[in-house]
Design a protein that fits this description.
With 109 residues, this protein is an all-alpha fold. The protein contains four helices and no strands. The chain has a domain of 32 residues. The protein starts with a helix and ends in a 15-residue tail after the last helix. The relative contact order is 0.03.
């Protein structure tokens, strides 16, 4: 069993014979330098600014705080609105104009 393991180790080490150093494709570094020196447009600048973890976290916290403020403020005003709805209902009931489209004028003499 020990010989089997030693043979596998020798086979693995022998498989590395003849390997060379990896090389990049032609003009790789030229294209890389050109991309790095290319001017960024305004959308790329804005997206890279908001992609920073600290800025993204701050924006998420701001949105959550605004949502919480809206929810809590709407709960306070909701109780006041229900009290006014009862008063407005009586005003709305008296201001309705009742007309019917089924009341025709007698067209025969």
């Amino acid at each position: 069993m020990q010989e089997n393991i030693n043979n596998k180790i020798k086979d693995a080490l022998n498989s590395l014979d003849g390997m060379g150093q990896a090389s990049a494709k032609p003009f790789f570094f030229t294209r890389l330098e050109a991309r790095m020196q290319k001017e960024r447009n305004t959308w790329e600048k804005i997206s890279s600014f908001f992609a920073r973890p600290a800025i993204a976290f701050a924006c998420i916290c701001l949105v959550i705080m605004i949502n919480a403020a809206v929810i809590f403020s709407s709960q306070n005003t909701h109780t006041n609105v229900t009290g006014q709805n009862d008063e407005n209902a009586t005003v709305d009931e008296y201001s309705q104009v009742s007309s019917s489209f089924y009341e025709f004028v007698n067209t025969k003499p």
